[in-house]
Amino acid sequence: MKKPYPIIMLVFLCVSISTTVLNGQQNYWISGKISDAQTKEVLIAATISAKEKNIGTISDHKGKFELKIPKEVKTLVISYIGYTSYEIDLSTFKKSFINIRLSKAQNEFDQITIFAKPPVVDITENDETIKDFLVDDYKLIVLSKDIGNGYNLKLLDYEGYIFHKLPLKDIRHIEFLKTSCLGTHFLVTEHHALQLQLHNDSIFIAHKEKRSHYDQFIKNCLDVNEDYIYVSNFSDSRQSADIHGFNRNRPEKIVFGEITDKINVANYQEDKPYLDFMEDGNTTDFSTINDYDKLQDFYNFWEKAALLAYNFYLPLDFYFHADEDNVFVLDHENHLLSQFNITGKMVKQEPLEYSRDRSWSGKILKDPKNEKLYTFLKFDRKNYLVNIDLPSGNLIPVMEFKADFLEKMEVYDDKLFFTNSGITEDKTERILRYVKVY
């Protein structure tokens, strides 16, 4: 039987191709919409990839996509599970919008699997609640709470085998586990940071220090390479941050500039009384007001203060990644990707488009084993894991991943680890799972 060809229609709009020149290389944006040829329904998370380069993207919840194309790319490949893929010769037209209608494949052998759907493996069981976890060179450090008992630290393998269990009966106000950019592990409480150490398949507490020391130095550590350690310092308002590199062998400091929420910085002094009110949490005046108008004024003040504190004056959203030759700053606040050399000189700066997408999860995951960066996009109650190509800032689809109540996630050695809880209010029955990244 002859395979049906997908229907592709080019809609010629009066839209000019946006062209930028970065370091001598010409790029332009192309956008479009992907739908079913028969039903006209949009196809969510269809794959749009360049045949000549390892770049691509996926269609959003409206079937639409945008992709920045280097000039050497001549062919786009459009694919969707259960549909016949199609190649578009970009040299045959000069418009920037493509309306694509794909036809379903005739039999199962025609189906092209775009997203791997690997099985989810349970590491722990429902007889304990997993509060937090870390990954350390093929072992897992797990902070758990047995039903009816206190906290424990456990050292596990990927299959859930327990190497060592350390009860935490005398430690109060436990908050979370954290790995610094230097690879050191900490159990963080309200008042202290306890450094953890692994030895001979055992886990123990090696050092205890004040939480203020941890917050000042260790928490601000962004990344590290052979020569430098990189840290950030926030302003008091947390609406601007300086990024510095410190040489690990000699007294040398490199400045990588400042990330700023310009609007909030400009308005900070005017809004500070509202923010201070939310910081202090003092509602004593509320209980003593008897006059209705004064009560309404107080309510309006509180409403504005809450809106500013919980929606506008959040800490800056950025991510920092260093390798041996370059450092990258993903500034999600201003939607910019900046590339520097190790001396602090900017090599290039490009728009960071995916951070504008409402379907972006806001999470950046680094695989420390192979230096890959990942993030999540969410469409139609499904999670799509995508690799971030740092030189271009483009997204490369990896796999579709179904999981409700998805919580903490870590990627290590091409495995995605995550905690997954039920619908119970206290998040009991939270278990630890992993899925292989393809």
Main β sheet profile: 5 strands, mixed
Which structural class do you get from the secondary structure elements?
Answer: mainly beta
Helix content range of the residues, please? 10-25%
CATH structural class of the largest domain: Mainly Beta
How many individual domains?
Answer: 3
End-to-end separation: 33 Å
The Cα radius of gyration reads: 25 Å
- As for the CATH topology of the largest domain, it is Neuraminidase
Overall shape: it is: globular
CATH architecture annotation of the largest domain: 6 Propeller
Oligomer: single chain
Percent range for β-strand residues: over 45%
Stretches where pLDDT falls below 50 for ≥5 residues? 1-25, 107-114, 423-427
Number of DSSP strands? 33
Number of helices: 4
Averaging pLDDT over every residue, what do you get? 82
Folded structure, characterized:
Helices cover 12% and strands 47% of the residues. Strands 1, 2, 3, 6 and 9 form a 5-stranded mixed beta sheet that branches. It has a 4-stranded antiparallel beta sheet with strand order 5-4-7-8, with no helix packed on it. It contains 4 helices and 33 strands. The protein is mainly β and 438 residues long. The protein has 3 domains: 104 residues, Immunoglobulin-like (Sandwich); 261 residues, Neuraminidase, CATH 2.120.10; 50 residues.
